[in-house]
Amino acid sequence: MGASQNRAFYEHFLTQQETQQLLFIHRALAVNGYRPHVRSLTLFDVVLAEPRLLPPLVHVRQLVLDAVEEHFDKPCQVFVEHTSLISWGPGASIGWHHDSNREYLAQRHFSAVLYLNSSDVDFSGGTFCFQSGSGPLRIQPSAGMLLLYTADASNVHQVEPVTAGERATLTMWFTLEQEHQEDKKVLAALSSPAMRGSGLPPSMYQQTPDGPDIRLGPLQQLGVELVSQHQQQHQHEPQQQQHEQQQQQHEQQLQEQPPAGSQQEQQQQAQEQQQQYALLAAGQSSCAEIASFSSVQQAALVLYMLQWKLCPHKHPPLLVHGNGAAGHTQQHKQTSGGSAAVPMQSQLQQPHPQQQQLEQPVCQAHIPCGCYTDAKLLGRARQLLQEYLAAAGEQLEQLLPVWQQLGALVAPAASEQHHMHVLADRC
Ligand SMILES: O=C(O)CCC(=O)C(=O)O
Ligand SMILES: [Fe+2]
């Protein structure tokens, strides 16, 4: 990876298989684009034209978002503003500009260009250049390479004309302003009166307190759905009693806690705690509640885990159980090649007394997928785990069963685990 504060590039961000999938989607669906010699396909187009092709695109979109948040050090603060698969034919070019140089583009804070094919192999020309004091910094596109830069005037750039062949990219912009996020725009457009039918079926997105989120749509394909506890109570009356008990326990816990901040803060906290999610295994006669969450942040951890199931290499996360001792972790690192274990216990500054008494082993997340570099993966997983654990706080003892159940959901059957390790070794 090459990097400076306001730009970075990763040479092999995607595998050949991933780039091929995106190229296929582009070739299957792209239409003549917004400029001469350009063909383009937005996320909106894919949702509309062939939603079955969404998962590989949504998967890569999430990888790029993770990379942006990590490189620009904005964990969980960045929203995708626009996603397009774009190809340029002979004659296409763009002169010197930066990506937020119009009033209607002011919400764009970061840009990402993911190259899906290579110059001098698939096309000629099409060199990307950053303006710099000592003369242009020239970047030759190569398949799987990701370029990140801030969209402001510190990154004036151009693309030289393509002279032969077709130059293909996944181009994305990102915003820090939630109201400009793509998911909401796509859903609003799809639900507008101008569209025939009644808009995008809710099975293709999920509602969260932050609004509809199209990224969660693929959960359906995993046989899992995320519902609010409120919905669940109404859909599954027999479970109501149990939930009422849980809620009472929560309220009791809240009352027992020493006063923290103003009454208003406490009320807000209580409200947040009530905004719970349950992750349900779909298609079961009685919905199996797998976990409940007090914030989207925590749900994100679970989704993050589940997204691994969409990995084209089929490397889901493995949840391994150990005693949390360094020796175990080390041994695991050695046997699993480049992948890494995340010792959850070490994230805790003050282990909960009940946790110390636990006879049960502490869960460790072991995520072997080679799509991520270890550093990126670890950074993201650590951050999410930290947030999860901080939020779990007093409820830590509830965490273990949650992870165990999640493990059953996302990890392969025991017989497949050896195979997974073999795959992980090759990453
Ligand atoms: O395709 C590229 O390499 C960059 C394109 C670009 O600068 C833009 O679309 O604003
Ligand atoms: Fe640009």
From TrEMBL:
Renumbered residue ranges of the record's region Disordered: 193-270
Pfam families assigned to the protein according to its UniProt record, in alphabetical order: 2OG-FeII_Oxy_3 (PF13640)
Superkingdom, natural source: Eukaryota
Keywords carried by this UniProt record: Dioxygenase, Iron, Metal-binding, Oxidoreductase, Repeat
Biological process per Gene Ontology, one example term: collagen metabolic process
Cited PROSITE patterns: FE2OG_OXY
Stored InterPro entries: Oxoglu/Fe-dep_dioxygenase_dom, P3H, Pro_4_hyd_alph, Pro_4_hyd_alph_FE2OG_OXY
Claim: Repeat is one of the keywords in the record: yes
Coiled coil (UniProt feature): none
Cofactor(s) named in the record: L-ascorbate; Fe cation
Fe2OG dioxygenase domain: residues covered: 74-176
E.C. designation(s): 1.14.11.7
Chain intervals with Low complexity compositional bias: 238-270
Gene Ontology MF annotations: iron ion binding; L-ascorbic acid binding; procollagen-proline 3-dioxygenase activity
PANTHER family: LEPRECAN 1, PROCOLLAGEN-PROLINE 3-DIOXYGENASE
The protein's name: procollagen-proline 3-dioxygenase
Organism, scientific name: Tetradesmus obliquus (Green alga)
